[in-house]
Amino acid sequence: MQKIIWVICLLACLGCRESTLEWGQKLLAAKNYEKGRDAFTLSIQEDETHWEAYYGRAQCETALDLSAEALADYEKAYIMHPTAETCTGLGKGYWDERNLEKAKSYLNRAIGMDADYADAYLNLGLIYAKEEEFPKALPYLLHAKGLYKQMPEELSMALMLVYFETGNDPACLEIIRSFKSSDTVTSAAYEYHGRLLQRKKQYQQALKEFNAAVDIDSTNVYAKVLVAEVYAQQAQYEAEIKERTRIIRQVEDQKADAELIGLSYYFRGMAKDNAGDFRGALRDLDHSIALSDGRAWAYFCRTVAKIHLRDFSGALQDYQQAVRLRPDVAFDDYLSEDPSSYATFIAYASRHGVRFSHNKSTII
Predict the structure, then answer these.
(1) Residue 310 domain-assigned?
(2) Is residue 348 in a domain?
């Protein structure tokens, strides 16, 4: 009913000087994506030759995570008006549909059309950063920076990430400071400041920054994960367990995908194992494996928990499954670190055809 009223009001604007296309562009600029999409749709119904309406609707659909619809509209805009702008839009559309090679192809084509079109360089840099090819991402991001009159926040965020990952701490810190001194308060700036401090093993200062990141944005799960990691690095396992529990509650409340929830239980299981709560670790690792069966380290951690609980048969089964999933990992080294704790299990495994060496186990 509300949508019908909205459409009637929008149609009333036809009597005004402002067109539905112009109204849609205003709504897009105001980040009112749903109503903006409706306005652009009406504009298309009035005149199907306006490429700007298809392009604007695609931008709204991108913001609304309607990737298939956005790609179709970007393509229509490009066919009608093949410029660097619409070609970049088509590249973004393919990126959202996870066709990264085609996305790169169109973004490079956009640069060929207009070597000064900043958005094309920015999006190529973002794709390479997403692929964790940070040295490749940097030149595109820096080129984009030189073309923009005012650097967009998305570019600053990307450079902060790339500088951090390539070890350019001073450049990363410069962007962090610019964010902190601006009117835009961003959780990510505090998160990355904490990561820089964590890398220097300045744990208390890192915790302060991570907690500030969470205070700014309570949905920043990664900042909470980093808090837990700092506790783990300091062997404060009880504090880590509490933080991991908060993370589990949040990802479950948000109905996150099973992989993320399973990973959260895995890390809490590791913390409980380190704290000596082997039964608690076993419960968490059982849950993790039930949610995501392909994680080798979950099976291996459950192996360790079962060894401590004297369930050698179950431990051996989990160990063999872990090796099947990750044959390149030398699990034996871990078991050999404390031979007295694992001697009985190693002897049990030997009787069942598994021999341990310093590199890898051999099943005979």
Answers:
(1) no
(2) no
Contact (CB, 8 A) for 220 and 254: no
The residues, any chain, with a CB within 8 Å of residue 274's CB and separated by 6 or more, are: 232, 235, 237
pLDDT at 19: 87
**Which of 307, 360, 353, 298 lies closest to 329 in space, CA to CA?**
360
Does residue 364 register a pLDDT over 90? no
Sign of torsion over alpha carbons 270, 271, 276, 281 = negative
Residue 166 falls within a domain, yes or no?
A: no
Residues 275-279 have a mean pLDDT of 95
CA–CA gap between residue 312 and residue 106 (Å, rounded):
56
Say if residues 272 and 284 touch (Cβ distance below 8 Å).
yes
- Where in the sequence is the domain holding 2, given as residue range(s)? 1-114
Give pLDDT tens digits for 342-354.
Answer: 888 888 988 988 8
**Residue 315 covered by a domain:** no
- How many independent structural domains does the chain possess? 1
Write out pLDDT tens, residues 30-66: 999 999 999 999 999 999 999 999 999 999 999 999 9
pLDDT band at 328; cut points 50, 70, 90: confident
Q: Which two tokens stand for residue 273?
A: 């194992």
For residue 63, give both structure tokens: 């913001």
pTM given for the model: 0.80
CATH number at residue 31: 1.25.40.10
Nearest one of 268, 277, 280, 206 to 242, comparing CA atoms = 268
CA neighbor of 225 nearest in space, from 266, 186, 258: 266
